[in-house]
């Protein structure tokens, strides 16, 4: 940890944090108390969206060490050495993860702002419970808001994805992590 | 309209007046339709197909880019923040920004007196020109009128520095007494919120000394006379009721965000989360005195709008900061700001009065709406007007109808446009009242409605009630509201309600009908341009603003239907004022109906040149060739050329070269209403008033659904919003006007755990004025859960709640009162 800066920022603690991000070792820099969400987005990982920055919308849902979490509630300093996955760790447009595929098949998206977080939440549910009931799906997704769909088609999609997940895919979290790229970084 | 003679109350009150005859002639039932506009289901190519949404893949992979996602692509971008008034009413006497300005990393601090801040009035409404909203606000405000008025803005190298600088700005106020209640605001002793001398473009019926932004009234027939007649007759009943509703937030997923910068040509480039790129460009040109040609507004993906992004709130501040700092600036609002400083569905209080015969024939319907505009007036007159002009056309046969509206200012947040646009408020009053009428005369609520309902072929005069019967009268050329009732009734189980075993639980089903429009009648323009690539694909440019519902996909389907290609062969470019043809933007349920028609005509235009070039290539007369199998074929010889052949030949050919292109505008006086029937199934605990909504069903007549899955998505999402309006939502304030509801959970937006199951039903009709028979669908289902639920609870336990949100406490209070 290094402390830099002068004037009003003396109290800020700039850090370089090394972590496994979408399958690659990465170093993210920022103030230690800064929400992981803001740091990710600043480094080009714009899949997680900022809807409230207080843990109430779920648009920034990511996976941290295998558990589903809201990136806005985790300070940067807490992810040193962690394994973090954003939506970019799932499929690509040509090779979708079954949960992504199911969201498309069921037209379970409109504006899309909540969808990266919602899919991460749904995948987390299916990793833990590969065959959830509709009520369990509704309960599990309730930390993630959606304003456009009325949730009906989202619940359909997750129910369908559960049926389409191969056990090993559900267990290892999708495609090989070695060929992933961070999303949202323009050349 | 003229008043009929009421000498004999039994006489049919609508007289065949000359005026009526002239309206009948002006709006004939027959409509000359393009020959290919009406297609049997089996002849449809890609319309009525649930084509994959064109942005679906980039959305599920997280690659879709919204305004804030562009930040990393713009070098030297700095962050803007807005300092807002902490008091509800008063004047800023001084702003000491010296400490903020002295901070490292602070590039600009703006106050109402800064040179970079425009000092002219405008409206944030985002409507066509001239706007039907008063120009009553400034970009930064010395005179503050609610907790949330922007008083200063800061641009700094990063967000933390901007927030720190904002905290160091000292603002001193001269406080005035606020007025928070709309009825109290009209009293003579109430504090005056606006000085009319400072307002341009004032709206009809304004009386700023009484804080009235607008007052409008209209009448068909003579309601008072019908009420007087009812007094003399035992077989006529007068029914009165009053309905109240509070604020609703759009709760848009993506908080409003704008990036403003100068491009390499020194033109102002604004990337922004807007539903109205062209109106935004015009409004910015007006405010900053920059020629329209020097402004470019780009709309990337939008994290939904629902009307909130029709308002121009953040853009002028971002532009002013960018101009002052000489750098690109991003302003991204916080969720907290979303809950008090953006725009909202307006609170209303609506009084209903009606006269009905014992057979259930409506003789008179009267509606008096008082709406709370909050501190400023965008959409005040038009939204409040729609509280009457959207629901009353359901019962357009009623011989005597009166609608009166008053939009009043208070020192509370600013109301604006929101999905439904006054119709949700109006439908609660009208459709709740209809059940009260049914109850008063002992009639089944569906039978009462059916007896008085609009039907296909009708001349709808109610839609013109406040325009003197001229501008907005319309002919109903498609209407399947009876089928919507029948199918919804079946799906919800209206005729077979099984009561729970527990004797304290009671189940009831309620209904409410609804109508909307398809665009603003006579005040829309959509334009489209389509061009062919060498490979036989097409690029479609429209100004249609896809805010998430899938408008771009519907546009590609409409073009593909004409050109008989796949929707994936039509690439739709997002709205950008430098590139797209003009469009009024995404509001008033206009996109599919208006812009979709422009797309259809542009595609037909392109098809003409396609056929001409192909005929030349086939050495055949145009009359013998036809589009077939991704190419053009000579019907007589069977010889054909592929679209790719035509693409290359048209551009690189040896003989004539001519790119296959088409273009068209569409503008219309028509705004055909889609219709719907909302059903709510509820179980109420009579001991506590607690209730659970078991199911919501909505059956919609939206004409031909271009993309049924997307249309269903509209219905389900709208029902969610309507359910929220019925049972949660609402904003609360303390006695000084400070907001108390500032996050999602306090606000009570339904989650997967508490949103009841939804069922949507599409009932197809053919609207001859719409592209391939389409009407609108986006707003219609936002209107009717509150009345359907109020009616359902009444039918379950006899408790009538007329104030939103409907809560267990209110139900219990009504039960106790019995």
Can you tell me about this structure?
The complex is a heterodimer of chains A (187) and B (818). Chain A has 187 residues and is of the alpha+beta class. Chain A folds into 2 domains: 7-89, Beta-grasp domain (Ubiquitin-like (UB roll)), CATH 3.10.20; 98-172, [2Fe-2S]-binding domain (DNA polymerase, domain 1, Orthogonal Bundle), CATH 1.10.150. Helices cover 29% and strands 14% of the residues of chain A. Chain A has 6 helices and 5 strands; from the N terminus they run E-E-H-E-E-E-H-H-H-H-H. Chain A has helices spanning 36-42, 98-105, 115-128, 134-140, 152-164, 167-172, and strands at 14-21, 24-31, 61-64, 67-70, 83-85. Chain A has a 5-stranded mixed beta sheet with strand order 2-1-5-3-4, with helices on both faces. In chain A, a hairpin with a 2-residue loop joins strand 3 (61-64) and strand 4 (67-70). The longest helix of chain A has 14 residues, at 115-128. The two termini of chain A are 30 Å apart. The relative contact order of chain B is 0.12. In chain B, the strands form 8 sheets. In chain B, strands 3-5-1-13-10-11-12 form a 7-stranded mixed beta sheet, with helices on both faces. A 5-stranded mixed beta sheet of chain B has the order 7-17-16-15-8, sandwiched between helices. In chain B, a hairpin with a 5-residue loop joins strand 28 and strand 29 (691-701). With 818 residues, chain B is of the alpha+beta class. Chain B is 26% helix and 22% strand. Chain B starts with 17 loop residues before the first helix and ends with a helix. Chain B has 20 helices and 30 strands. Chain B has a domain at 41-60 and 525-666: Aldehyde oxidase/xanthine dehydrogenase, molybdopterin binding domain (Aldehyde Oxidoreductase, domain 4, 2-Layer Sandwich). Classes of the chains: A alpha+beta (187), B alpha+beta (818). At the A-B interface, helix 1, helix 2, helix 3, helix 4 and helix 5 of A face helix 2, helix 4 and helix 17 of B.
């Amino acid at each position: 940890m290094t402390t830099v800066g002068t004037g009003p920022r003396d109290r800020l603690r700039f850090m370089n944090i090394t972590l496994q991000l979408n399958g690659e070792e990465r170093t993210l820099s920022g103030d230690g108390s800064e929400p992981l969400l803001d740091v990710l987005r600043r480094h080009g990982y714009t899949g997680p969206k900022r809807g409230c920055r207080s843990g109430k919308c779920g648009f920034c849902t990511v996976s941290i060490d295998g558990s589903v979490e809201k990136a806005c509630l985790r300070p940067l300093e807490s992810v040193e050495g962690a394994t973090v996955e954003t939506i970019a760790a799932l499929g690509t447009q040509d090779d979708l993860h079954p949960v992504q595929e199911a969201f498309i098949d069921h037209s379970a998206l409109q504006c899309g702002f909540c969808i990266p977080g919602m899919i991460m939440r749904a995948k987390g549910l299916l990793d833990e419970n590969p065959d959830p009931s509709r009520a369990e799906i509704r309960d599990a997704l309730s930390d993630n808001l959606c304003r456009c769909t009325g949730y009906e088609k989202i619940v359909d999609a997750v129910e369908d994805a559960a049926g389409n997940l191969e056990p090993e895919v559900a267990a290892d979290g999708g495609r090989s992590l070695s060929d992933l790229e961070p999303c949202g970084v323009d050349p | 309209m003229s008043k009929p003679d009421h000498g004999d109350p039994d006489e049919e009150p609508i007289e065949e007046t000359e005026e009526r005859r002239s309206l009948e002639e002006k709006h004939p039932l027959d409509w000359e339709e393009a020959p290919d506009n009406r297609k049997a289901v089996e002849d449809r190519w890609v319309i009525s197909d649930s084509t994959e949404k064109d942005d679906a893949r980039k959305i599920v992979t997280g690659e879709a880019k919204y305004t804030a996602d562009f930040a990393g692509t713009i070098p030297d971008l700095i962050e803007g923040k807005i300092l807002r008034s902490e008091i509800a009413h008063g004047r800023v006497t001084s702003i000491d920004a010296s400490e903020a300005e002295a901070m490292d990393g602070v590039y600009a601090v703006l106050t109402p007196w800064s040179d970079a801040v425009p000092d002219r009035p405008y409206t944030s409404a985002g409507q066509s020109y001239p706007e039907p909203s008063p120009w009553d606000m400034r970009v930064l405000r010395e005179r503050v009128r609610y907790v949330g008025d922007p008083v200063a803005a800061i641009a700094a190298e990063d967000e933390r520095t901007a927030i720190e600088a904002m905290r160091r700005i000292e603002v001193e106020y001269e406080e005035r007494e606020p007025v928070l209640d709309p009825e109290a605001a009209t009293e003579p002793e109430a504090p005056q919120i606006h000085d009319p001398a400072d307002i341009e473009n004032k709206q009809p019926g304004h009386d700023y000394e009484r804080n009235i932004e607008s007052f409008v009234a209209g009448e068909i027939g003579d309601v008072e006379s019908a009420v007087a007649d009812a007094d003399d007759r035992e077989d006529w009943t007068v029914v009165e009721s009053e309905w109240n509703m509070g604020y609703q937030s759009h709760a848009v997923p993506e908080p409003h965000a704008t990036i403003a910068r100068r491009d390499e040509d020194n033109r102002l480039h604004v990337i922004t989360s807007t539903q109205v790129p062209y109106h935004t460009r015009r409004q910015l040109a007006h405010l900053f005195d920059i020629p329209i040609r020097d402004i470019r507004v780009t709309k990337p993906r939008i994290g939904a709008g629902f009307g909130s992004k029709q308002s121009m709130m953040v853009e002028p501040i971002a532009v002013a900061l960018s101009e002052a700092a000489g750098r690109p600036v991003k302003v991204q609002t916080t969720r907290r700001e979303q809950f008090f400083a953006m725009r909202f569905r307006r609170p209303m209080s609506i009084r209903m009065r009606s006269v009905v015969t014992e057979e259930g024939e409506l003789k008179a319907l009267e509606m008096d709406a008082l709406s709370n505009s909050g501190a400023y007036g965008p959409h005040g007159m038009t939204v409040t007007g729609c509280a009457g002009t959207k629901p009353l056309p359901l019962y357009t046969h009623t011989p005597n109808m009166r609608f009166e509206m008053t939009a009043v200012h208070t020192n509370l947040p600013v109301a604006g446009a929101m999905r439904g646009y006054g119709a949700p408020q109006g439908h609660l009053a009208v459709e709740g009242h209809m059940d009260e009428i049914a109850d008063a005369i002992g009639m089944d609520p569906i039978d009462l409605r059916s007896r008085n309902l609009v039907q296909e072929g009708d001349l709808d005069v109610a839609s013109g009630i406040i325009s003197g019967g001229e501008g907005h009268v319309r002919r109903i050329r498609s209407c399947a509201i009876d089928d919507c009732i029948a199918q919804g009734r079946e799906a919800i189980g209206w005729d077979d309600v099984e009561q729970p075993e527990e004797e304290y639980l009671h189940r009831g089903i309620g209904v409410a009908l609804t109508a909307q429009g398809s665009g603003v009648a006579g005040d829309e323009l959509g334009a489209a341009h389509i061009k062919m690539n060498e490979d036989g694909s097409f690029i479609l440019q429209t100004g249609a603003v896809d805010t998430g519902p899938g408008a771009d996909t519907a546009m590609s389907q409409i073009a593909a239907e004409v050109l008989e290609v796949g929707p994936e062969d039509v690439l739709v470019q997002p709205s950008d004022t430098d590139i797209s043809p003009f469009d009024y933007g995404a509001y008033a349920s206009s996109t599919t109906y208006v812009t979709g028609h422009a797309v259809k005509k542009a595609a037909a235009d392109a098809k003409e040149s396609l056929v001409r070039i192909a005929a030349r290539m086939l050495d055949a007369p145009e009359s013998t060739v036809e589009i077939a199998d991704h190419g053009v074929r000579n019907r007589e010889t069977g010889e054909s050329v592929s679209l790719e052949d035509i693409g290359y030949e048209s551009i690189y050919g040896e003989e004539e070269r001519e790119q296959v292109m088409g273009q068209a505008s569409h503008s219309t006086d028509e705004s055909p209403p889609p219709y719907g029937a909302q059903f709510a199934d509820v179980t109420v605990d009579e001991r506590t008033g607690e209730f659970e909504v078991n199911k919501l069903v909505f059956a919609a007549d939206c004409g031909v659904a271009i993309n049924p899955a997307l249309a269903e998505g509209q219905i389900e999402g709208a029902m969610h919003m309507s359910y929220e309006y019925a049972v949660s939502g609402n904003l609360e304030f303390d006695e000084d006007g400070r907001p108390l509801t500032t996050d999602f959970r306090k606000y009570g937006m339904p989650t997967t755990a508490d949103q009841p199951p939804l069922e949507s039903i599409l009932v197809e009709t053919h609207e001859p004025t719409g592209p391939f028979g389409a009407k609108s669908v986006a707003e219609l289902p936002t209107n009717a859960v509150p009345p359907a639920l109020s009616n359902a609870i009444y039918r379950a336990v006899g408790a009538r709640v007329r104030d939103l949100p409907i809560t267990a406490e209110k139900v219990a209070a009504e039960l106790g009162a019995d």
